[in-house]
Every structure is written in structure tokens, then in C-alpha cells.
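Known limitations

C-alpha cells in this collection are predictions and should be treated as such. Users comparing against experimental data should check residue numbering before alignment. To illustrate the layout, the record for Fermitin family homolog 1 is reproduced below. The input appears on top and the generated C-alpha cells appear beneath it.
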Amino acid sequence: MLSSSDFVSASWELIVRVDDPNEEEQKDVTLRVSGDLHVGGVMLKLVEQIKISQDWSDFALWWEQKHCWLLKTHWTLDKYGVQADAKLLFTPQHKILRLRLPNVKTVRLRVSFSAVVFKAVSDICKILNIRRSEELSLLKPSGDYFKKKKKKDKSNKEPIIEDILNLEGSPTTAGPPVSPGLYSKTMTPTYDPISGTPASSTMTWFSDSPLTEQNCSILAFSQPPQSPEALADMYQPRSLVDKAKLNAGWLDSSRSLMEQGIQEDEQLLLRFKYYTFFDLNPKYDAVRINQLYEQARWAILLEEIDCTEEEMLIFAALQYHISKLSLSAETQDFTNESEVDEVEAALSNLEVTLEGGRTDNTLEDITDIPKLADNLKLFRPKKLMLKAFKQYWFIFKDTSIAYFKNKELEQGEPIEKLNLRGCEVVPDVNVAGRKFGIKLLIPVADGMNEVYLRCDHENQYAQWMAACILASKGKTMADSSYQPEVLNILSFLRMKNRNVSSQVASNLESMDMNPECFVSPRCAKKQKSKQLAARILEAHQNVAQMPLVEAKLRFIQAWQSLPEFGLTYYLVRFKGSKKDDILGVSYNRLIRIDATTGIPITTWRFTNMKQWNVNWEIRQVAIEFDQNVSIAFTCLSADCKIVHEYIGGYIFLSTRSKDQNETLDEDLFHKLTGGQE
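Generated C-alpha cells:
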């Protein structure tokens, strides 16, 4: 027994394990402390007792039993509830992490294991020079994800996993953020907007960063295509339920890596989680655009998203084009780019702003909402009935379509008026077969009404399709995004145009790449290699003149135009239901989907949402919409916090505007995604 004269009666012994990376094994240090000693004092005592002269500033205390960091150094041990039985670890906050990027490259870098994931991802994106870090997050895949790839890689002699880009010497993680210039709105462009190569001035920004010129090009340029064998190994046909299981691994943005059981040197996936890509600018976003393109490319190749054969060939042609241009761009000298006069650029922007830019009749748009009027064909599916389209006179105004028997009757009552706000709009197009259809799924009280419209030609289709897409979001044709949407649709249709020429035959002889590399394995099996190559080259003629960055952006736009784009699936059980359903979460809506048939049952728009919260006891997400509509569901394929964070995250991203500077309201993000009312 110790006498009270030797020690203060309130003091007790605390054992702290020291995790010093410079030492081979951890060692225990015993301290005599009292409950009113603050955490900073404990750390000071600890360092004095270790008697090793080094920089301890990155070290902090981790409480193993409670699974939390003791980061509030002014708090006392009593306030934290630390007693003699506590197992504390004195460990660096920044540790090595391996991240698999969307382009299948692995980077090794030092990341904060004590900051919440939202902040850690922000720091990672600064190192990698990816703007808008809020769109990305970290995904922990299922246990066999990397093992399977390693085994396959060995058999194919393709060292994907071993090919690691080492950025662990990064000075950015513990210090100030990298290169504030990369985030400045008035800076000289960081990349050439045509080729995506770093502008010569960019290299001065990278001088204090691990992103050297070579590393930058690895991240900003597309990787050579995988062999068809490697693709076949990675490909797995997935049902909606399988896709739902893949999304269970997203990390909680409001907790740290250490709190979520992530180990040092563990491998995670860095992915674009939210499908709203804000302010994509080729001058600053070469890495971001390339990684987005790569994520889209793999989603198409591995059929994580469905597309038609015609669309698959367009994606293949763009990939072929991009891989050819990337090979030639990598051999160019980075320093040949012309300097841009920053002040001149700013002045010309100001001039455009003061003059009002293009002479759009904005006031006219506000007072006079445009309308479309034309003959279209309509079909409503009914059981045991063939697809018989019937012609009517259609008028599209505001966000509604009304149709009449003929033009002469348009002043009277319409046969039916369809309100498209909140509907699903699906293209039903085959350019080669001259079929330009629009499938509308219109929400009604007991589910969805299915309506098919058929247009006569590309221009008519582009105008009506763009109007339907805007109306589904609650916007009219007066909105400034209408004309760009029309042009987007037209350019995508033109890419689908098949124009056979003698040039295809001659190119076929000189085609130096395997056509099976550019399509999904299932698509490759359907036709012979030579036939597939001919069709890819045929589609390539429509994009052959595109510069590299524009081709990547066009690929991303084509991906965004697919009906399933941006849907993240979860297996749920709705309150009152006896069977499981799939919940699709998108940037602007939730969709209830039948798990067996894959057919949408109901859609709910975020714009109609009044409030949402989680009952943590029964792990149930409850959402209230306008007009007394409320839903509640439990998540079966993932933790309910993941789904809740997705909804709150999309609402947070919808608050961004170009007027803001690029600093994010992190508190608002946590408020919207945290799960409290």
C-alpha cells in the first residue's frame, strides 16, 4: 500500500501505450495522474517521461474501449470519464492510407485518422488537385474485392495493385492546405482546356506538393485500356439487389477513419459519391474531369449502369478516341503552353458582365413562357394490347402537356392534361431505325402512369425531350438551361448517326487496339471482333475531330443522359409492407422500385420534402412530404445512417452557387446529414 504522504490521495496510475513509428514495437508508459488533470497535461507528462527528442505535435490520445479520440486537450480526465482501467494509445493522427482512384490507380498518402471523413476527403482532394471535394467520399468495399483482383492480376500478369503512386511524403496533411492558388477564381488557368495538359504556370503551384509534373499527368490522363481478359475477370452481372449491397460500404462522413475501424495502410476506394458535378471547368479540373470520365467508363464497361447497344458503341468510340489522344498527349512537352494574361481575362469577363453578355431577352422570357405545339403520336400501355400509336395535336406549356384530337380543337377542352412535375423521363431512341420516342412515368396516388410519345425527327425529339426533362424538375422552357439541353440532346443523337464510308474499311486495317477493350464483356460476345471494330470506327467518325478534354466531357454528358444515371440503390422494407423493395436515391428524388421486376413504383421529389429524420432505436428513416404524404423505411442492405446521409448530402449540394467562394459550410453539411431533426 502507498502512504498518503507519498502521493496526493486523489492521484492514480494510468497506463498509456506509445505507438512510435520509429520504434519497432509499442511500449507501455505508466503515469501518475489525477482526475482534474487536462488531456494536454497528460500528453506533456508522457513526452517528458519518454525522453525521446522528436516532433510529437501530430500525436494524440486514442481511447481504445470507447473508440474515440481525446482531441479536446483542455478537457480534464474527469470530464472525459477516463479512469485507471482506460486503455489509451498515444499515436500519430496522420497515418498511411492506400486509395484506389476511379482510374484504377492506387495512391499511397498520409491522411488524418482523427479528422471526420468529410474533412479527410477534403485534404485528400487538395493533394490530388481535385476541386469540389464534397462530391467525393471513401468506400470500404466487401472483403473479397481486392483479393479477387490480386488473384486475377497474377494470372493475367497485369500488375494493377502493385502499381502504386507514392505521395506519402506529402507536406499538406499536417500543415496548411496545398497551393491555395489552385482554388483561386482569378488565377491563371491551371490546365490547357483543350488537351488537359498542365499549363507551364501550374508547375509553380506544384513545387511544394507531391504532385510533380509526372504524377499530375498520371492522374489527369486516361490509363491504357484493360485487356479483354482482365475485363472479363472483373465483370460480374449484377441484379438491383447486388448493386444495393455494393453501396453498403460508404464511410460515415461525420466520424473519423479510426472511429470506423480503418487500419493504417488499409486500402479504400475514393469515388464520386454524389452525382451532381458542379462547375466543371477544363482550365482547373483536368484531374477531376479525368477521374470522372474513368468512373463513368468503368460503370459502362462493367455494366453497373444499363445502356443500349447503340449507346455502348458511342461510349466505345469515345474511349477509342480518348485513348489515342492520351497516348499522343503524353508525349508532348508540358511547357509549350501559351501564357494567359490573367488581368486581361478578368477585364474581358467584366466587360461581358457589364454589357449583359449575350443579348438574351430575359424580360421577355419572364413574362412570356414559350410553348411547343405539334403533331405527336401517343400510346398508353394496357395489358394484352399491341403497341399502337395514335396521332394527336400536343401543346406543351409551363410544366404540362395537353393533347387534342386535332389542331382545330386546341381552344376547347383537351382529351387529357399531363402534369410532368416529378415524373421520370426515359429516352426510347434508335437513331438507325429512325425511332425517336419519349417514355414518361407520371406519379399518381397509387404508383406511376406510363405514357409513350413518338416524335418524327431529331429536332422535334430534342425540343420535346428537353422540355420534358426540365418540366420533371419543375422548370419551364423559359429557363436558361433549355437551349443548352436541346443542343446536348442533338449532339448526342448526331454521335449515334451511322455514316458508313470507305474510310472505315481503311482504318480497320490500321486499328491498333483490341475492340473488345472498349465494350462490356457481354456486348463483346454478341459479335465478331472485326465486325465490332468496324462499328466502333463507324461511330468514331462522328467524334474524330474532338479535342481530348471535350471528348471526356462529352463521354460524361452521355453517361449523365442514361436513364439510370445517378441512382444509388439500397434494399429497404417500407413501413406497412410485407416484402422488400429497392430504394433508388438520386440528386433530386427518391424512387421506390420493385426488387423483382426493377419497375419504378413511386417517385418522391426532394423539392416536396418537409422534413426527414432517423429513429435510431428501431433504425428507421422517416420522411414527410407536402400534401400529408409521409413514408418510413428500414434499411436492410446498409446502415440507415448511410441512406440518411445520402439524402441530406444531396440537399446540402443543392445549396451551392457560383456566387459563393469555394469554402464550404461544413457545419451545415453535418446538420443535414447527422440524423437529428
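For this record: The two ends are 53 Å apart (CA to CA). The CA atoms of residues 404 and 414 lie 5 Å apart. Please report discrepancies through the issue tracker.
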